[in-house]
Design a protein that fits this description.
By secondary structure, the chain is of the alpha/beta class. It is built from ten helices and 13 strands. It is about 40% helix and about 20% strand. The N terminus is likely disordered. The structure holds nicotinamide-adenine-dinucleotide. The site of nicotinamide-adenine-dinucleotide (NAD) has 25 residues, from helix 1 and helix 4.
């Protein structure tokens, strides 16, 4: 057991694990633009990378091991931005140390491990896990959510979503379009409609000739919800153009959009306001002893369950019902 943050005025001391594109950006955000936070420890499997980031952040030092970073007595809370396969063990270590953790999406790479996180957190009796679904903090998505909740669009019927990247790293494979990209649209759907996704169908159009050989890109995904709404999602990660994410909700008495006409070089630029708001609200929640403000382990699990069905649909070409517990 570690001490909780007992002095509301003292900054939350954060360890950032994984300081690649997302983690380095978050480390700077915490150190420079988040009130009430300080970065005391950084770790990366690439220690040279960790050293570089630590030298950029006043007061930060490098831990050579992720688990000692999590257990470090100078650390009150953990931001995980390591690659998805590392999340499960690192989140469990945060639970074992009783430390709040903001885990970048996806929570884990499989529904079974995500459910294990839910169960272990629940056994502790205190919420500790927030998942980095930052759309819930994006001003336009927040506004869209409010419109729907206020009934301004009448009953929502359909959502059209698009998720386009100019390019992806060489290790990106066809399943990662589901596990790394669709996962955001799944959470956005659950956030906007307030209901679960129950079935997934992944369609495989002719691949983009400019995509790396073997990459099924684009993909068109149909999500079905518990109340019969249909959400279509275009995933296109080798567009060669800008980063673009959008949603159009069609309701019985009107439609409204988020993200239309907004184009950026990459996700860091595109969602800067959302990331800023996400980390500030997380730090505020940690300081207040609530630990979580926004999507938690259950949301991470439900998104993983839908993506597990999505991966099966990508493989089989069939509609796959979401198995959840
Ligand atoms: N919320 C978002 O919009 C968003 C956007 C991009 C990435 N992400 C998520 O952030 C995470 C990191 O993505 P990225 O784009 O920064 O990847 P990245 O490859 O740029 O960075 C990952 C870093 O983690 C390091 N690493 C590898 N194994 C590690 C381990 N076991 N422990 C600690 N560090 C390790 C790597 O050396 C690298 O520096 C992923 O989970 C990804 O899905 C979220």
């Amino acid at each position: 057991m570690t001490e909780s943050v007992t002095h509301p005025q003292s900054p939350v001391r954060v360890a950032v694990i994984g300081v690649g594109r997302m983690g380095a950006d978050h480390a700077h955000r915490l150190a420079e633009r988040t009130s009430g936070a300080t970065v005391t420890v950084v770790h990366d499997a690439d220690l040279a990378r960790a050293e570089t980031v630590a030298t950029e952040i006043s007061g930060a030092r490098v831990a050579t091991d992720a688990f000692s970073a999590i257990a470090d007595p100078d650390v009150d809370a953990v931001l995980l931005a390591s690659p998805a396969p590392a999340h499960y063990e690192q989140v469990l270590a945060c639970l074992a140390a009783n430390k709040p953790v903001l885990c970048e999406k996806p929570l884990t790479t499989a529904a079974a491990t995500a459910l294990d996180v839910v169960r272990r957190e629940s056994a502790l009796g205190t919420p500790l896990v927030q998942v980095g679904f930052m759309r819930r903090f994006d001003d336009e998505y927040v506004q869209l959510h409010k419109l729907i909740a206020a009934g301004d669009l009448g009953t929502p019927l359909l959502i059209h979503c698009a998720h386009r990247n100019p390019s992806v790293p060489t290790y990106f494979d066809s399943e990662m379009l589901i596990k790394d990209c669709l996962v955001h649209e799944v959470d956005a759907t659950r956030f906007l409609l307030g209901e679960e996704v129950t079935a997934v169908t992944v369609l495989r159009p002719t691949p983009n000739p400019s995509a790396p050989a073997g990459l099924q890109d684009p993909q068109l995904v149909i999500l079905e919800t518990a109340n019969g709404r249909i959400v279509d999602v275009e995933l296109f990660v080798t567009s060669g153009r800008s980063y673009e994410v959008r949603a159009e909700v069609i309701g019985e008495s009107g439609s409204a959009t988020a993200g239309f006409g907004r184009r950026s070089a990459d996700f860091l630029e595109h969602f800067v306001q959302a990331y800023d708001a996400e980390l500030q609200s997380w730090i505020d929640a940690v300081r207040a002893g609530r630990n979580v403000d926004g999507p938690g382990a259950w949301d991470g699990y439900m998104a993983a369950a839908v993506c597990t069905a999505g991966v099966e649909s990508l493989r089989t070409g069939q509609r796959v019902a979401v198995a959840s517990h």
